[in-house]
Amino acid sequence: MPRSQKNENFLDKTFTILADIILRIIPMAPTDKEAFAYYRDGVMSAQSEGEYAEALQNYYEAMRLEIDPYDRSYILYNIGLVHTSNGEHAKALEYYFQALERNPALPQALNNTALICHYRGEQAIQQGDPETAEVWFDQAAEYWKQAIMLAPGNYIEAQNWLKITGRFG
Question: How far apart (Å, rounded) are the C-alpha atoms in residues 132 and 122?
């Protein structure tokens, strides 16, 4: 049984039912439907339950089937999320960059890239390397500015950090 049919949460069940109905009535190629099913299983079930290995398997299968660059950008973004959750920041950045290559208007990928850069800046400070920290913080600022430009009402904490540190301009 597909993982998406095992959902116990009311909202997840509702989403799954609606997604299944939409898949039946919207004219799509069979591979597109199959790619969406793997994506849905990765997002709605495995990843949300912390089953990251299973989520990655679903995302990789969705990538194998999906040809649309825009749709692939969201799959790549979600793969990046899994790697971020696992503390694999270098791998996560690779996937965020791939997502942004296919969809430059993906503010959440820009935000997560900025978060990793900021985290690395904090690590550099803890290691007594303020020069390296500044480089990472400047990179974080650039990614956050791009994300904020795409989604002005989002990322309020980032906006405040940019203002406080004098990097907003």
Answer: 10
> Cβ atoms within 10 A of the Cβ of 34, count?
17
DSSP 26: S
How many residues in the chain? Answer: 169
Q: Whole-model pTM?
A: 0.78
Give pLDDT tens digits for 4-28: 444 455 655 665 666 666 666 666 6
- Express the helix, strand and coil content of the chain in percent, nearest 5 each: 80, 0, 20
Give CA–CA dist 29/49, Å, rounded: 29
**CA atoms within a 13 Å half-sphere pointing along the CA-CB vector of 85:** 15
The average confidence (pLDDT) of the chain is 85
Q: What is the DSSP letter of 47?
A: I
Task: Collapse the DSSP code of 136 into the 3-class scheme (helix H, G, I; strand E, B; otherwise coil) and give the result.
Answer: helix
Whole-angstrom CA distances from 166 to 99, 137, 154, 161 are: 29, 11, 19, 8
